Automatic annotation (TrEMBL):
It is a multi-pass membrane protein. One of its GO terms (molecular function) is lipid binding. Coiled coil: none annotated. Belongs to the INSIG family. Keywords: Cholesterol metabolism, Endoplasmic reticulum, Lipid metabolism, Lipid-binding, Membrane, Steroid metabolism, Sterol metabolism, Thioester bond, Transmembrane, Transmembrane helix. It holds the Pfam family INSIG. GO terms for cellular component: SREBP-SCAP-Insig complex. Mediates feedback control of cholesterol synthesis. It comes from Carlito syrichta (Philippine tarsier). Interacts with SCAP; interaction is direct and only takes place in the presence of sterols; it prevents interaction between SCAP and the coat protein complex II (COPII). Associates with the SCAP-SREBP complex (composed of SCAP and SREBF1/SREBP1 or SREBF2/SREBP2); association is mediated via its interaction with SCAP and only takes place in the presence of sterols. Interacts with RNF139. Interacts with RNF145. GO terms for biological process: cellular response to insulin stimulus; cholesterol biosynthetic process; SREBP signaling pathway; SREBP-SCAP complex retention in endoplasmic reticulum. It comes from the Eukaryota. This is Insulin-induced gene protein. InterPro entries: INSIG_fam.
Amino acid sequence: MRCVAVFVGINHASAKVDFDNNIQLSLTLAALSIGLWWTFDRSRSGFGLGVGIAFLATVVTQLLVYNGVYQYTSPDFLYVRSWLPCIFFAGGITMGNIGRQLAMYECKVVAEKPHQE
């Protein structure tokens, strides 16, 4: 639950906190996202999952923008909002932790069953 709360906080901060420029916003969100990974995960697979999700989701978003399905009001860097990969990274870490907790719960429930169904 704490990981989800931090993710929601990062997402809310990206929308509500006013920064002087987008580079400052991007660096702050990158530091918060890596801090989220360090606090709640610290695994290589979790970091790889976050980077992979951030890359793939940003590419899909770019394809949507390029094809005219979606449009930014003001792109920052190479027609991408520079904070977008940071949000996707934090979301990937959060969903990975939720999945890990659900898998651990399922293994615990299966191990406690005294009989086969």
